[in-house]
Amino acid sequence: MSSTHYSKHFLPLESNADVFNQLLRALGISPDIVFEDIFTLDEPDFLPRPALAVVLIFPTTERYEAHKSQAEATRTAYSGSGPDEPVVWFKQTINNACGMYAILHAVCNSRARQHTQPTKLLELSDELEQAHAAAAQGGDSAVPLNAEDEVDFHYVCFVRSDKDGHIYELDGDSKGPIDTGILTDVCDLLAPEPLSLVKRYLDQEEDNVNFNLMALVHRPS
């Protein structure tokens, strides 16, 4: 559980490509850029490729929290900014909005990138808050009655930097972007090397099946 003191609270997004695409449209992203659900990693022919970014939702178990706390203790807070940075990273300042931050990380670090409001403006945007609330209530799952309620799931996004070719894990609830050390010329986040990062999460919770995965792809109309 994060110890962050949030300035605002949103209802959480369901891990559902239709819900994510509804928010993509509200953000002004082209209809040609869409999220697609990934139902299996064992049949490569059924993977939506090439993937511009991959979003993983997973349970925030005690094992995960302990592992993250240990890893975060070795990191320094990110202070980078500007066009020379390898990736665009948003610090999460809105509770239960990790799905929205995953969307922003995906579109701002791929060919889907468009102008996106800075974090502070995100907090102040009533229009975006309304769009997020509509998307959150558009899924099949029941949503919490109170946006301040803690949820036991979290989203992270994996992207490839156009600047240095490294694969980054982007989590607004961490101290900054995480360079995974994987260097690749392949602009496909479902290629074997990037996909190994997702499988690492799955292996850590091998007795837990409450994971979901989505890919951001370009589907010209």
Word description of this protein:
This protein is an alpha+beta fold and 221 residues long. Helix content is 28%, strand content 19%. It contains 6 helices and 8 strands. The chain has helices at 17-26, 62-72, 98-108, 119-124, 126-136, 192-204, and strands at residues 8-9, 33-38, 53-59, 94-95, 153-160, 166-170, 178-183, 212-218. The strands form 2 sheets. It has a 6-stranded antiparallel β-sheet, sandwiched between helices. Strands 1-4 form a two-stranded parallel ribbon. Helix 1 (17-26) runs antiparallel to helix 5. 36% of the residues are buried.
Characterize the overall form. globular
Poorly predicted parts: none
Protein structure class: alpha+beta
Quantity of strands, as a count:
8
The chain-level mean pLDDT equals 84
Measured as a percent range, the helix fraction is 25-40%
Estimated radius of gyration: 16 Å
Give the terminus-to-terminus CA distance. 41 Å
The proportion of strand residues reads 15-25%
User: How many helices?
Assistant: 6
Main β-sheet, in a few words?
6 strands, antiparallel
The ordered string of helix (H) and strand (E) elements is: EHEEHEHHHEEEHE
Question: What order do the helices and strands come in, and which of them pair?
Answer:
Elements: E1 8-9, H1 17-26, E2 33-38, E3 53-59, H2 62-72, E4 94-95, H3 98-108, H4 119-124, H5 126-136, E5 153-160, E6 166-170, E7 178-183, H6 192-204, E8 212-218
Parallel strand pairs: 1-4
Antiparallel strand pairs: 2-8, 3-5, 3-8, 5-6, 6-7
Helix pairs in contact: 1-5
